[in-house]
UniProtKB/TrEMBL annotation:
GO terms for molecular function: DNA binding. Residues 157-329 form the Tyr recombinase domain. It comes from Clostridium saccharoperbutylacetonicum N1-4(HMT). Belongs to the 'phage' integrase family. The keyword Zinc does not apply. PANTHER family: PHAGE INTEGRASE-RELATED, TYROSINE RECOMBINASE XERC. This is Tyrosine recombinase XerC.
Length: 333
């Protein structure tokens, strides 16, 4: 099959995928559709009507790319972020991916990164490297124009956990059993708020004081909760035996959403009357630092947080100066 036949096949598949969203969710069906298109075009020689390539094919290829990423287990939130980014990429360029140069991508980044933080720009660069690397691996393009893009330097800021006094004020500000249950789970499990939102009663092991949670990339892990959390879990659950752990107050057995859980923490913060910034993710940082300072190895903290590498864990957990001093005196004569 000629290059133009292959290009026509890819673009037809992309157009059909955009027209029929069900294909985006089913990569094997996409492959079957492409096979049918290739067989149909086999006896034909496709020719271009114009000599100048002025049409973008990013939209068509992006739909196939996202289907592959979904097959790899990326979360829906990550896929949605990639989709929005690739739409902006498609709107910027009016030519095929194979003709986009490194300088073109730098101009795109200059526009997209105007007024943005270095970490945000690095996210754009990572997305471009991922997309164009995939295009090259799939042999849609010969040269990866994103390969030469360099990450910008990001100033390292040590993010702190909650102050012990403020943590107790937040605990005392909890009124309902739902609030107490949510607070103690955040404080003891170091789970993401989205992971707590998806907990079902069947996921809880009362004897082990553990919960099976589904983390990023659809990776399961075991999270452990404290005795305080166990007490308030039982009080909040009552006589329920199945379904989601956190339910809405407005509808019987209606599953609450992440935003609603975040609002609960916000209300607790208002009652506590503290100046410190309060958000759900900060509980992870607090517990990680606490465990590290109490002697848990970084690999153990990594497992608790569900991180792929210890490098990410080190951003969350910081040894206190007192512990650093004790470690130094223990190891250095």
């Amino acid at each position: 099959m000629s290059n133009l036949n292959e290009e026509a096949s890819i673009r037809l598949l992309g157009k059909i995928t955009l027209l029929l969203p069900v294909l985006e969710q089913n990569f094997s069906m996409q492959l079957e559709v492409k096979k049918i298109i290739d067989e149909t075009l086999y006896d034909y020689e496709v020719q271009s009507k114009c000599t100048d390539l002025v049409a973008s094919d990013i939209g068509e290829k992006a739909s196939i790319y996202l289907a592959c990423k979904k097959l790899e287990g990326l979360s829906q939130k990550t896929l949605d972020n990639y989709r929005l980014f690739l739409i902006k990429l498609d709107q910027f360029f009016t030519k095929p991916c194979s003709t986009i140069s490194t300088m073109d991508l730098r101009m795109f980044l200059a526009l997209m990164g105007k007024g943005k933080q270095a970490s945000t720009i690095n996210g754009y660069i990572t997305a471009l490297k991922g997309f164009f690397g995939w295009l090259q691996n799939e042999e849609y393009i010969i040269k990866n124009s994103a390969a030469k893009l360099k990450q910008t330097k990001v100033p390292r800021v040590i993010l702190q956990g909650y102050k012990a006094e403020n943590l107790e004020k937040l605990r005392e500000a909890c009124k309902t059993e739902k609030e107490k249950c949510l607070f103690e789970l955040l404080d003891s499990t170091a789970c993401r708020i989205s992971e707590l939102d998806n907990i079902k009663l069947d996921d809880i092991n009362w004897q082990e004081q553990s919960i099976k949670v589904l983390g990023k990339g659809s990776k399961e892990r075991i999270a452990y909760f404290s005795t305080k959390a166990k007490i308030h879990l039982k009080a909040y659950i009552g006589d329920r035996i199945s379904g989601y752990l956190f339910l809405s107050d407005r509808g019987e057995h209606k599953h609450i959403k992440v935003r609603a859980l975040q609002l609960i923490i916000s209300k607790i913060k208002d009652r506590a009357g503290i100046d410190e910034r309060v958000h759900c993710h900060k509980f992870r940082r607090t517990q990680a630092t606490r465990l590290l300072n109490q002697g848990m190895r970084i690999e153990g903290v990594q497992g608790i947080l569900g991180h792929t590498t210890p490098t990410t864990t080190q951003i969350y957990a910081q040894l206190s100066q007192e512990n650093l001093k004790n470690e130094y005196r223990r190891l250095v004569v």
